[in-house]
Amino acid sequence: MHAPIAAPPASAEKILNGAGAAAILAAGVGAFLLGVFAVAADKSAAIKSLMNFWKPTGALSGETTIAVVIWLLVWAILDARWRNRTVGLARIKTAALVLLALGLLLTFPPLGDLL
Length: 115
Hints:
Layout: H1 18-43, H2 45-50, H3 59-82, H4 89-106, H5 109-114
């Protein structure tokens, strides 16, 4: 017969979720910024020219490159701050989903044309 599984001690530590929360929120920020950069490049010739990192792709090369670099920076900063913490994951997930939805909406051309 197997021994019964013991309940965790009352003083058990909380599960650290800061690293995962950092990745989730950073992804939302990156998606949102990609949408912002896409609209900005469409609306401003100067920004479009600045974001043209590679001619065959046009401004999209700069939009995606800058968004990815900022996403990685935000992820690294948040991870360094939250790595050994337990954070409110519900608020983080909500913020990330809102940012993701806004980023997707901004990359939808009819909506971008309205702005």
